[in-house]
């Protein structure tokens, strides 16, 4: 009787349990505390991983939304009517400016040609006036000869004839005509110098200066047109690059979101492990109670527990692991 433990159950029935059996019962009862601790750990893992996955998923979706919004904003901005109108207006202004400059250069060239033609006309007129001066000089010499002949005639006729006054007037007229011809010759010479040297040189110098400025202005418009073409090319490349980078980021983000969503599968697996541990704990408690109270074994066996767990699996990989099959037979991605 020393090896028998007497228990006082609730119904006051006397049970005789062997000490080793009682120790086994106590050990079986301790499984409940162990399983409860493990369940707490699994619950914490599920909660923390789910919270972290939800945060990462939310951030990934925010990034995708921001990238999509940025791509749309850049595309809309670069293709907006205002920007396109501004670009077209600037291009039209450049074309108009180039046309105006071409007209100015053409008009300037025509004006230069007219000025040169007028100067040539003035020089030709000067040459004709010199020819007339030669005629005046001939008249002066002829008048001077008349004055000399008149003096000779007066000398042969004697004094007090009154012809000496006429001879003196003729001589004075010849002198005045010579002075006038000389003065006109000096003025024409000065005019030839002004036309031939000063005016033509100034016109030529102004033409070279205007041509240089017009060329510089044309070069500026050419560079502006080239830069506008480069800007349009850069704009098109920027839109293409933004769209390409957006598409490149979309695939990794989608993959990341899919990977994070599979975390829910891992959470379900941990929850199933937790339920399995709870079932085993309950089963051990039922067995210990049956031993203590000398009752029949519980209806649910370990095999029934495993069958119940198998029915709740959501992935073929879990079923394969349960049946002890090769995990490689399950696909990497499953639809469930």
From TrEMBL:
Query: Does the keyword section mention Protein transport?
Result: no
Which of UniProt's keywords are assigned here? Transducer
- Judging by the UniProt lineage, the source's domain of life is Bacteria
The record's listing under PROSITE patterns reads:
CHEMOTAXIS_TRANSDUC_2
Ribosomal protein: is it a keyword of this entry? no
Any single GO CC term annotated in Swiss-Prot or TrEMBL for this entry: membrane
Q: Which GO terms describe its biological process?
A: signal transduction
Residues forming the Methyl-accepting transducer domain are: 85-184
Q: Provide the protein name.
A: Methyl-accepting chemotaxis protein
Q: Please name the source species.
A: Novosphingobium olei
């Amino acid at each position: 009787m020393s090896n028998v433990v007497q228990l006082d159950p609730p119904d006051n029935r006397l049970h005789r349990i062997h000490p080793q059996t009682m120790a086994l019962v106590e050990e079986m009862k301790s499984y409940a505390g162990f399983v409860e601790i493990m369940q707490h750990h699994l619950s914490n893992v599920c909660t923390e991983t789910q919270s972290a996955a939800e945060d990462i998923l939310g951030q990934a979706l925010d990034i995708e939304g921001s990238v999509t919004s940025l791509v749309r904003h850049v595309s809309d901005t670069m293709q907006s009517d205002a920007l396109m109108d501004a670009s077209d207006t600037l291009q039209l202004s450049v074309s108009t400016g180039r046309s105006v400059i071409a007209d100015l250069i053409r008009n300037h060239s025509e004006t230069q040609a007219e000025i040169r033609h007028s100067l040539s006309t003035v020089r030709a007129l000067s040459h004709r006036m010199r020819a007339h001066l030669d005629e005046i000089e001939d008249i002066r010499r002829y008048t001077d000869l008349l004055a000399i002949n008149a003096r000779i005639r007066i000398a042969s006729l004697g004094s007090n004839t009154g012809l000496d006054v006429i001879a003196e007037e003729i001589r004075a007229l010849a002198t005045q005509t010579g002075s006038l011809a000389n003065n006109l010759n000096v003025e024409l010479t000065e005019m030839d110098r002004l036309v031939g040297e000063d005016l033509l040189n100034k016109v030529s110098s102004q033409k070279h200066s205007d041509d240089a400025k017009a060329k510089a202005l044309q070069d500026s418009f050419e560079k502006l047109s080239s830069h506008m073409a480069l800007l349009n090319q850069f704009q098109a490349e920027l839109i293409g690059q933004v769209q390409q980078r957006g598409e490149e980021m979309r695939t990794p983000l989608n993959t990341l979101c899919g990977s994070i969503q599979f975390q829910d599968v891992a959470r379900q697996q941990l929850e199933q492990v937790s339920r399995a541990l709870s079932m085993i704990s309950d089963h051990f408690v039922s067995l210990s109670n049956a031993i203590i109270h000398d009752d029949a074994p519980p209806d649910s066996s370990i095999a029934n527990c495993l069958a119940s767990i198998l029915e709740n699996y959501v992935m073929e990989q879990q079923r394969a692991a349960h049946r002890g099959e090769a995990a490689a037979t399950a696909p990497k991605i499953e639809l469930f």
